[in-house]
Write a structure and sequence with these properties.
By secondary structure, the chain is mainly α. It has 15 helices and no strands. It is globular. The N terminus is likely disordered.
Length: 465
């Protein structure tokens, strides 16, 4: 079973041999002051204006609630609440709008983060609908053109989802988090995707049964769809000891049978992803699940304080520490114990081993992180955590984090080969990327956490990597 609680995500999947990550991190105290804010690197891809009919039929635009009453969400964290928040700061503005951040308030930052998350999920919902339609067309007519269209729709949906990953708080988070519904893992179970289970369910045609939607998510979601649309192997991903090989049930399938079942399975999984995307958007949307109001409002049944609300976002930002640095880079590099070849690389453990777009996943994760940290409007404008740092006199820390982010993005852009190929022919480039990301995450999990008085998630406390 996949862990429901994001703070206990250190347990890894048995299917891939992922065990508990080593304890790392000694919380540091280092607050530098006085430098001017650096301009965010021009890697931000602005969110376009949402379509007139986003997934779930909800517009991300949200009106600003009234001022925070004494004792409500507005009084728990450092930083002054002196200016009226801009309800659209960091929201789904088109390129060129909202070019300067409004005066910082914690309320304004909550609105900016919520608007950006909601716009990100609306964008993904649109991509998920296109993916579902393309996968269905491929299942009906499994030709080369239909397959190519389904593959491209998957790439587009996955890029959108990777940008949303650093916003994993609220309904996307584990069920033990405030408002958490485990929807992230239901949409994309990385690093838990189990390709052997996908093949087992292909043989048994579980994808065609009503219970498919309640089956383990490690054989559904975007990871399973990648395998089904991109694998070219006539065989399966299971060992010879697994039942489908021992019993001969896989061998009994003809290659046309396998191809058609993969297409049918991909279509079923894409429909399931679309349903989860719509549920995630509805859970955030005003008048439906309304997590947006819970996170931004003056009163909340989910958050006892404003600082508690922000702490869930800081947990989400640490996606770049564990999933990106450790699992997407450290694992295939052989820098974590889960790599059975360590300290030699494990290139087969890249995230996107069938579509070969692991590098772009990292690029999009950094775009998502920049939207949350520096602002969601064009070119990194709008309210972000960098503005909060400036408001409490830690502009130098903000500048160093923006610089580390820019250097990480440049290192990704310099990685021109597919990640698995670069690991074989030019591992120094991948190591350089890992080092740049580590420079960012070291600041994130020490000085950033300390200055803004956040808590480290379980599993990172005492982590000294």
């Amino acid at each position: 079973m996949i862990e429901g609680c994001h703070r206990a995500r250190q347990r890894a999947p048995a299917a891939h041999g992922r065990g508990r990550l080593p304890s790392r991190l000694v919380l540091g105290w280092c607050i530098a002051l006085g430098c001017t804010k650096s301009v965010p690197d021009e890697h931000v891809v602005p969110l376009g204006a949402p379509s007139s009919e986003p997934s779930g039929g909800v517009s991300p635009g949200v009106a600003s609630p009234g001022p925070s009453p004494e004792g409500g969400l507005g009084n728990a964290a450092p930083g002054a609440e002196t200016a009226a928040p801009n309800a659209t700061a960091g929201g789904a503005a088109g390129a060129g709008s909202n070019t300067e951040a409004p005066p910082f308030t914690k309320r304004g930052l909550r609105l900016a983060l919520a608007d950006c998350a909601l716009a990100s999920y609306a964008e993904f919902g649109d991509k998920a609908r296109v993916l579902s339609q393309a996968a269905e067309a491929f299942a009906v007519q499994p030709g080369a053109a239909e397959k190519a269209a389904a593959q491209q729709a998957w790439r587009d949906a996955m890029a959108s989802w990777q940008r949303a990953e650093p916003f994993r708080f609220g309904p996307a988070a584990g069920s033990m988090e405030p408002g958490g519904q485990n929807l992230r893992d239901e949409i994309y179970a990385f690093p838990l995707t189990n390709y052997c289970r996908v093949d087992q369910q292909l043989v048994d045609r579980v994808y065609a049964a009503p219970e498919f939607s309640s089956s383990l998510s490690n054989a559904r979601g975007l990871g399973a769809i990648e395998y089904l649309l991109f694998t070219s192997s006539p065989g399966n991903a299971c060992s010879s000891a697994i039942n489908i090989n021992q019993s001969g049930s896989w061998a009994a399938l003809t290659q046309p049978d396998v191809a058609q079942r993969r297409a049918d399975y991909a279509a079923a999984a894409a429909r399931d992803v679309l349903g989860r995307a719509e549920a995630l958007l509805a859970a955030w949307s005003p008048g439906q699940g309304d997590f947006h109001a819970q996170f931004t409002g003056v009163a909340s049944t989910l958050f006892s304080s404003e600082q508690r609300a922000f702490n869930t976002v800081s947990d989400a930002l640490l996606y770049v520490e564990r999933e990106l640095k450790d699992w997407k880079l450290g694992w295939p590099l052989g820098l974590v114990p889960e790599c059975v070849n360590a300290p030699s690389p494990c290139p087969t453990e890249v995230e996107s081993r069938y579509a070969h777009v692991s590098t772009d996943h990292i690029r999009q994760n950094l775009v998502g992180f920049q939207r949350a940290f520096a602002g969601c409007a064009g070119s990194g404008a709008g309210l972000g955590f960098d503005d909060w740092l400036a408001a409490v006199g830690s502009t130098d820390l903000s500048s160093r984090m923006l610089s580390a982010l820019s250097e990480s993005q440049l290192a990704v852009d310099n990685l021109t080969l597919p990640l698995e190929q670069a690991l074989q022919t030019d591992p120094g480039q991948v190591l350089a990327l890992h080092a740049r990301v580590k420079s960012l995450t070291d600041l994130l999990k020490t000085e950033f956490i300390t200055v803004l008085d956040f808590e480290l998630p379980m599993g990172l406390e005492g982590d000294n990597d």
